[in-house]
Every structure is written in structure tokens, then in C-alpha cells.
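Teaching note: in complex prediction, the entire set of molecules is handled at once rather than each chain in isolation. The prompt given to students was simply: 'Predict the structure of this complex.' The entities are:
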Amino acid sequence: MADIRSALADHAAPGRHGTPGQAPGVVLREVSGAGLVQVAAWPDTVGAAMARLAELAGIAAPETTRIATAGTDVTLFRLAPERFWIAGAAADRLREAVAGAFAPEEAVVTDLGHSRTVLRVSGPEARAFLARSIAIDLDPAIFPLHSVAQTALHHVGVLVHFAAGAPEGDAFDLYIPRSFALSHWHWLTHLAEPFGYEVREALAAASG
Amino acid sequence: MSARRLGTGGRIDRSRSVSFTFDGRSYRGFAGDTLASALIANGVTLLGRSFKYHRPRGVVTAGSEEPCALVTLRSGGRREPNVPATMVEIHDGLEAESQNRWPSLSLDAMAVNDWFKPILAAGFYYKTFMGPTRRAWMWFEPFIRRAAGLGAATREPDPDRYETVHMFADVLVVGAGPAGLAAALAAARAGARTVLVDEGAEPGGSLLNAPAGADSDGWLEAALAELNGLDTVRILTRTTAYGAYDHGVFGLVERVGDHLPAPEGAMPRQRHILLRAGASVIAAGAAERPIPFGNNDRPGVMLASAARAYVNRYGALPGERIVVFANNDGAYPAALDLARAGARVTVVEARKEIPPALISTCCEAGADIFVGHAVTATRGRKRVEGAVIAPFNTITGETAAGWRDIPCDVVCVSGGWTPVVHLASQRGVRPVYDEALAAFVPGGAAIDGQHHAGACRGTFSTRGAAREGFAAGLEAAKAAGHGKPAGELAHIDVLPDDGWETPIVPVWTVPPAPGTREAKRFVDLQNDVSLSDIELAHREGYVSVEHLKRYTTLGMATDQGKMANVNALAVMAALRDLPIGDVGTTTFRPPYTPVAIGALAGPEAGEHFKPVRRTPMDAVHRREGAAMTDAGLWKRAWYYPQAGEDVNAAYIREMMAVRSAAGMVDVSTLGKIDVQGPDAAEFLNRVYVNGWSKLAVGKARYGVMLREDGFVLDDGTTWRISEHHYFMTTTTAEAARVMAHLEYLLQVAWPDLKVHVTSVSDQWAAVAVAGPKSRTILADALSGLDLSNEALPHMGVGFGTLDGIPVRVARLSFSGELAYEVYCPAGFGEAMWQALKAAGAPHGLIAYGTEALGGLRVEKGHVAGSEIDGRTTLSDLGLERMASTKKPFLGQVLAGREALTDGGRPRLAGFVPVDGTARIRPGSILQPHGGPHEGHGLGHISSTTYSPELGHYVALGLVAGGMEAEGQVVDACYPVKGEVVPVRITSPHFVDPEGERLRG
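The expected output is the structure of the full assembly:
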């Protein structure tokens, strides 16, 4: 079977770009190999659906749309009061189990694993860099670890997740619709030039 | 030369010399100089020519409110006109030019306008160029346009980078003078995330106009040290808060690279900051205003505070013999500092009485003083040579006999101070006139989250401003939710307590001295509006401030009348015999000072103007040499030219290949919507005009949706994947609109339906394989799917794998040939394309693009976006039989309106050229054959193609009568090219009208 081709294929070679000098202000890398499965319930079934989801994923389901829950290889997002995403390497593993876990009147499942390109933004200037693109207050007091924002990035709806903190440094995952991914890559790398940026190898989702 | 550099003093760095040019001549200045201060130091006093009369003009202010000294900087694509010389920080290699003069600044041919002043009054254009004929204005217009304006913009692209930044703060402090610094200290100590902005190159505001080394400098240093030591504080200099918007949003522009020869590396030239603040302190200060007297616009007439700034901040003395004309205490620090710097100063005090102590201070400093006098006119043209003064009565506003001439080269004026209330005014807050201060102040306490402090609130004492700023900072922090104890504001006794002792007495204008000739008294210097223009406006009935402004253009120049508005209001109030407070003010609009369009565009220019949407096979198409075209934001393969082919040759070849063998086309751009839930079938029944409850699992159906108003919204194909799971496709163009439409219905109209819709447009790559060989090719390529006619009939759905890639397949046809749509998860899209290509090669499979795609469906008479254009109904498109009679559907009711069921509406038909060869153009208007060709005729041609199969052009369109007029001839008129093509009305199904091919 063919490999899954990244929307950024041939455009995201590792390297150092932009303002030269010391350490790059921004590090960019794709997060690959992650699945994405959507579970959508209804007001009368969302409680039970969340419980089932938590059971399957092994972690609590998010209480609000503003904070995700995360385990070693799985992250759960709540996009809307009754809509959830299972992301991370576990999503592929869980896809079949999830597909069969709900009666039609309880919840419906949609595979979105190919619909997003996930870009991880880190580096000492990550927040200042993202401020050039999204109108979200990323101050850690307002947007703590695992915060989620669904916002517009260069006119396109993107989900932003404060995915990781110390010791590797704060990292933000951007879930970008695949058809816009290359265009957004050009946009973001253009904005990253003044900070000096480094592109690294794609990060396998399993390593979290 | 009288203006010169002082040997010592100023806050410039005398160790760093800077060379620059002005109008081609080289000059030297120091780091820290502005262009204005450096030119003054070099004895240059003529900087520009006025807008209408081309009168010589010089520097009037030392700040952003500058009306006259506007220059053009740089060259080529970086050329920038109308930049105030007072705001330009000089650097090595700076090139500046004066504006609005030809052939030169000192000899300007257009100065003849000055002689025509009496005719060129306000309203001149409206009254003069209106005849003798209706077209007269357009004849005059090019001449007027060439004469208009100040600077000239470049037509070359701007090579600089611009950034947009989103910033958040608890408290924004606008202005880093004494009030602003104190406010920032208070807010930061209280725990608020604080952003302090100042338009100057350094923080300090009015403190920087005190002599270097003054006691207040110590306070400034300490305040900055404390602020810079806090990581909750950001100080942005060279940053103007240009606009205040809803919900505490402020627009700021930071001039990042303008003080450098060019921005370095990837540095932006300017940064546009959208700042959301919980609360704000506006400490924007006050601007001194002039007093209109005769010829008050000559180079050398400037604000008193500006002259003080040039001496104390820049070490540049504007002249040797200086008259200081004032009606308030605020002018005296200027008079004294000028005298101490070595100028011969004469103070002309308009008020009748001032404290004897003040008079003796003047005398001790070597300055003369005339009390109860006013300057009535200046002498000199290219610069001031003398001032005429006369006894003046502030109560009657009249001058008395006994004028005298005082030789001088500078006249400093101080008519009072105008608080900078712009940011409050932009929020709709009407300022309130304070009689005692003769100034408009922001009304009320905190308005719209803005807390005012210092001079912009009418507190002109430096010490008082600091105290007020501190209190405002605490209030703002509290309003933003922060209240940690902030202690006291220390050491403010070193700040001068320089408020007014004697009240100001307003002097709005000075009439000529008896026995002297009347001369123009300018009120708005930049737009050349004078007192007589205001009087004219009043005589002609334009008495409201809104009319006064627009009739005279007062306040409409790039300085928004910062120094003119209050004087004009007061003059109009006197003419109308009303108190000033009753006349009212116009509303200030953003921007406070001009903002480059580049800064507002930010990085969204050129290739970054809008995002680009690509299919999973985009790279492959380009490698195969496809010409690409835009479909909304998408890039699609348009045609695949072989050697020497243009678009026409290519699409004709591609169409022929599809009909004779097979072709493959990337249809990934179609909207794809996952529809799931126990009520999914019911939902489809409601949104589509046709029925869905009987569609079996494993089958697909063509559907049409209407808008609520009964017009066709979109068409597409929906597949039933399993009992409660449907896969809907829409057209590329309407995908987003249909998605929003469905979500709206589920959330608002039918929340009881258990259905979820999810866009999966990006999840799937899709290829249509069409042509007589399509089945054979797919049978070779796919595993696990029986493609026989019985197992997968027309509109059947199946699942299989292609080289291990999971695919879902529907037997659908857009082209009218035997055809299949093959879908796989997007990440395998390129692999799927390559596998299909390989399987198809032995069978003559070619790739085709959107041009051929369109041609094929036109040949079949399938409607698409050109027919479903939002103005057509089901019947118009010949699809009325699709509408179910057994169940209601969205749009059904309004589709029954008279106008939509009118039999005379243009309806779908096919068209062929009568002569068998002519080209029919889309968009042609259909008119009765042979005439008359009037109005909108009988209908229009919506889509056309050359038909390789028939050997001539065919077209689809809408015509009155539709198919009932079959056989008739009408004229297809294309007025843009002057073409008239007779066409015959036929069936729209040109090729394979019985539809046999897709059932094979």
C-alpha cells in the first residue's frame, strides 16, 4: 500500500531560514502519522457518549471546548458541545473500535484522518510568531497547557492546541485543512523569517 | 543666516554626525535630529508650498500635528509623500524633497494662484467649472487634478515588508509623557499587563522639551528604569495609537524601520498592531494652537512650544530676533528659553494684565514685553522679516491706533492649548467646552473604558499631570481586574508645577491694525482656508460645523485640522452669536495621523493576498505540464497541452479522447459532506426537491436543492453508504454555502432532527474516469469490486482497493459517457492517480482538465454553475419533474410565486449556429432574429463549447419559450465585440440524446 503523502511533501525540507544568528526563534515541523476521528452525539446522548469515549481512549473526555485532555498517544478535543475529536497516534488504533461503539441514535463517527495537516510550532519566539497570524491571547495565564482555540488563520478555520510544555519548550499544534496546508506553510514561513526559523523532520505522532 | 545650531545643549548626540540631502543639497545634522530640526540648524526655513495658493511655508510645529512642512522621502518603490519633516528621524543618506512646487521651491510657477486669491475662495470649484455645457466639468477636471494634491505617490510596487500583530493587554497607556509614565507605573504595580505607546522616538513626551539635564530628567530616568525592569510592561516607541474601536480594540502603527536607511533583513518597515485592551489610559497631551493674524503663514511663524522644543531638545535656534505672541502663561517658558539661548526676544502679551513678577522675569532674561498688544500681521514673503503689533482689546477683539513694526525673523504664537481628544471622539464622545481653559476637554470620567489624564484632560501642570496619570492608571487597572497595592508616585516634586497662574483670555483672531492693509488670516494652514472663507461660508448659509468643514475643506487635510478646528469653531460661533459650546464639534475619525496602506495590508499582498487551495494531485498536474486555472481559491488543471497546443486545441483533443477511449479528471474540489444520523434520510428529503427515503444502501442519486426563496441553490449527487450514513457531493463553487445552509437548518430550523453534517472535502481525493474504456481500465486497476453492469449499475456505489488503497466508487456520469467517480483518502490521492494512469495507459487513457470537463457536459445538456446562477428555478432548468409531489421540501412554497411560475420566463434550451460554423459566445443576449435588438431581449447564452463530435459550436442558454420554441431562429448578440450570430433553438442534448452510453 502506498505511503500517505504529506501536503507539504517536497516543501518542508529540514533547514535553517530567515534572520541568521544564534538559535532560531521558531521551530516548525509537521506532525505526521496521526489519525483524526470525530464522534458527534446529541444533547440527550452526549453524557453517555463522553463516558464511552473516555473508556475507549483511556483518558477523561474534555468538559469544555477550551481545554483538551491528553494521554501518551491520544488527545481528545471538544469542538462543540456535542462534537469530539480523537487525535494522535491512538486515533488510528481506536478507529474501528470507536466506529462500532455507538448506536446510530447515540452518536455518529466520521474519519477525518486525511483532512488535516498538523503543524507543530515551538521555539522561544513561538507566541510572538503566532501573534502575527492569530488573534488569540496566548499568554500562559490566559491560555494554559492544553488550551484549544478554533480561530481564523489567514482566512481559514484552524484549530490551535497548546500541545506540550517543558522540558522541550512550549509547542502549539495547528490543525490546518489539508487543501490549504501548503499555502499556509508559505504564509507561516514568510512570517517566521524575521524570527529566524528552523524546519525539522516531521515528528511522528506516536512520540506525542 | 538667522536660524542656526547652538554650540551646546539639546538632547541630540553631537558625537554622531549625519549627512542627508534636501532638494538635492547636502546638509549635516546629528543623530537625534529630526529633518525639521536639522534644516533649522542649517538655516533652511523654506520647506514647502501651500496647497492652493502655493505660498512659501516653513516649519510650524515640532510634532505630528505639523500642517506645512510636508516632504517626500526616498525614491523608487520606497518613495513616500506628505511626510511631516518634524517626524522624520534623520539618518545617513536620507533623501528628502519638498513638494507641490515647480520648477523649484524658491521659484514656484503656481504661486500665481496667490494673486487670484479673491477668486479662489471656498466653493470656487463648485461655482466656476459647472458650465457652459454639462460636459464642461470633465473638460476642466484633468487640469484641476494635475494642480491638486501635495506630494505625488509612486506607481512602483512597495518592496518593504509589513507585519500585522495581534496584541493583548490589561491596560493600554497612550502617551509616554509625565501622565502616561505615571499611569503605566500605577497599572503595572497593580498587576496589570501594561502596554505603553508613544509616537516619539523616545518616551518622555513634554519632558523632553525641558532643557537637557533639568531636574525632571531624573524623574524620567527613574520611571523608565522601573518600567523596563518589569516583564509585564511593554514600551513601544515610534508607535501611534491611530484608532479606538469597539470592545477596547485599538489600532496602532509602529514605525520599525523608518529611522534606518532601510529595514534590515526581514525587519518590517512598519508594524500594524491590533491591540485588545481591558481598559486604557489616554495621556495624549495637548497641542498648542496659533492665533490667526495677517499673513500668519509665512516661514518663521511657528508655535511657541515648537521653538522651545527646537532649542531644548535639538539645540537649534529658529531665529535671532523672535517675537512671542501669546494670550496664556504657557508661552513664557518658551520666551525665556529662547532668550537664554541668545535670541533677542520681544513678548507681545494680548492680555491686559499679567503679574509683575512675570514681567520682571522677562526683563531679567533680556526680553522686551508689550502688554495688551497683539501681532496684527507679518512682513516678508519667503520668510518673516518683521511683525506689526498694535494695542489690542481682548474683550472687543479690536485693535487700536498706534501700530509699530518690530523687525524679526521668527514669530512664535501661542493662542492656547487643545487637548488631544481624538481617541475619545472616535468613540462618539463629544468633547465639552471648558470656558476657563478655552479648550475642549473629554466629557465625563471614564468613557468606553478610556481614562483621560494630564494635558489631554486640561491639566497643564507637569506635576499635576503625573499625579492624575497615576490615579488614572490605578483606575484602569482596577477596571481590568487588577488591584494590587501600588504605593505612591515618588519624587514628583522635581517635576515643575507649571500650571497657569493667570487665566487664559481667548483670542480667536486679530483684525488688521488701523491704518494697515487687510491681509489673509489663515485658519487651516494645510488646506489654505482663511478667515474670509469662514465668513463666506457663513454668508452663504453653511453655518453648521459639518457644513463649514465640507464647504471650506477646513480640517480635511492630512492633519485633520489639529491646529485649526477650535479657532474655526470659535470664529463661526462669534459670527452666529452663539457660545462656543453650543456650536459643537465635528467627529474625529481614525486615523489620528495618516497610516500607510501598506501597514494596513500587512503581509497580505502579492502571493499572500489570499490563501491558495490545492487538490491532493496538484503536484502531479503541474509535473504533467497542466495549465492551471482558478476556481475560487482552488487551483485546478485547466488543460494538459501537448506540443504546440493552445487551450482550444487541447480541450478539443481531450474531449475526443474521452468520447472515444477514456479520460481521467481530478474532481477533488467538489464539496463533500458526511451526513449521518437516524434522521438523515428525512433531512435529505427536506433539503432536496426529490425523494430520498427509498434510496437503497449502495446507491447514489442526483439531487437539486432550492433556496428558501424558491430559486435553485445547488445540485449534486448523494450516495447511501449504509443505513444512516450518506455521502453528499456539491458543486465546487457552492460547497461552503451548502455546508453553512445545512448547519443552519439543523441548528435553527430543525434542532429535533438527529443528523450531523461534517465537511469532508479535504478528507477525500476524487478522480472521474469517463469513456467507453472506463470499465475495462477500472477492472484492471481495482480489486475487490465487481464492475459488471449488473453488479454495479448506473448510479451504483461500491468499495474496493486500488494498489492497496481503500477506495469508494460510484458509477456517475457528468460527461454522458460510461463513467465512474473514484474516491480515496486524500493522502493516497497522488498514488491513486498514478495507479489509474498506469492501468489506463494501454487503453489510451488521457488526463483532461476543466475546459474539456465543461465542454463534455455542455454537449450533454447538463446544467452547471452558469445555469444555476441563483436566478433560475427548477422549471427554468427543465428539471421540474424532479420535484416530489409526495413530500414538502425547502423552497417549495416560494417557488410557487407568480413571477417564478410565469410561462414567459426564459427556459433552458440548446443552440446551434444557423450557418454551421459561427462561434457562439457565452453571455450573448438573445434577441428576435433580424431585430429589434432592445433591452434584455429574450434570454441569454449561458455556456458554450466547440463540439468535436458535431463539428461546430453548440451552446446552452435560457430563452423565452424554451423548448416550445424549438426550431426557431434567434440572434445571439455580443455587443462587446459587435457580433450578431443567428442561432437555432434545439434540444440541449446534443450528443447521445437517449443517454445510451452511460447505461452500457
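Point out the following to students. The mean pLDDT of chain A is 94. The radius of gyration of chain A is 17 Å.
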